[in-house]
């Protein structure tokens, strides 16, 4: 003790040594607690692979088109006298849509009827001339046997009979011409009443009463707008463009489902009805037509739609949620839990259906696949599992 008093620096050094020793022991003890806390297990959500039939679907976007579209033109010249329908009206087949001023066409019919009556009257007159010439010729044939008339008289009678028949045929030909003229006049009169070729909605009306129309427009400009436009939407059609690699999968009669923006919660069912059988050189796609019944006429021409065509079924396909799959360059992998540790498994995926994806290689079906927490683990990380409900 006296020695420490005599050497105060030695005493101070001993005190400092003991203080450092206590501090080091305290730090080591707190560090061990931190390591214990950091070694706590990671909890991951897991699901078991689902094994069931998987429908193979091709998905496209397209516009809805009416089954039939026609621009209404006039087949005769004239002014529009009366419009019987307007935009948005539903019309039946053969319903009267509009009238062209038919005054001149009615006059033409009346004139043709008068000409025909006159021609028929002339034929009737000539019938009498033919009968008279025939009687004269028969009489001459009887009289020449007893030499009461000369051969010249008989020859004259025969010539008169033949001339009468020729005149009769000429007049009958005129009657036939008048009948054709009457039929044409009646047809033009009928064309002045424009009717609907099929049931549908009036989508456009481009001209008003009093507008002049001509048949030349219809014959030379099939792409022009016409007087009005008629759309048949009792059945609608959708045209999709199928890429070259999927062409062998699409066949006539396959079922299709359509979802329209206007009815997001409703699925409309249709059928593949036509395949063009040739590819567009620019896009290397083939046009396929899908028809959908539309009796309630809810689907309209021009609507945007998403279409899924069912092209086949994979029976008892092994499926997992698409969120479980990760990608690294060209490799796709998932994590499964084996013996309390996360293990990376490379997989080959197939078809996709909603939020499920088919696994072709890598799984047997009895694994626990990591869904939530897969970004927190690596190969060999100890984990504890929590089963997730199947959706």
Characterization of this structure:
The protein is built from 5 helices and 19 strands. A hairpin with a 2-residue loop joins strand 15 (331-338) and strand 16 (341-353). It is α+β, with helices and mostly antiparallel strands and 391 residues long. 32% of the residues lie in helices and 41% in strands. 19% of the residues are buried. It has 5 domains: 2-38; 44-54 and 315-387, conserved putative lor/sdh protein from methanococcus maripaludis s2 fold (Beta Barrel), CATH 2.40.420; 59-65 and 233-313, Efflux pump adaptor protein, beta barrel domain (Elongation Factor Tu (Ef-tu), domain 3, Beta Barrel); 74-100 and 196-226, Beta Barrel (OB fold (Dihydrolipoamide Acetyltransferase, E2P)); 103-191. The protein has a 6-stranded antiparallel β-barrel with strand order 2-9-12-11-10-13. The chain has a 4-stranded antiparallel sheet with strand order 6-5-3-8. Strands 18-1-19 form a 3-stranded mixed sheet, with no helix packed on it. It has helices spanning 2-6, 8-38, 103-145, 151-191, 215-220, and strands spanning 42-47, 50-72, 78-83, 90-91, 96-100, 193-195, 200-205, 212-213, 228-243, 255-260, 263-280, 285-293, 304-321, 326-328, 331-338, 341-353, 356-361, 369-372, 383-387. Helix 3 packs antiparallel against helix 4.
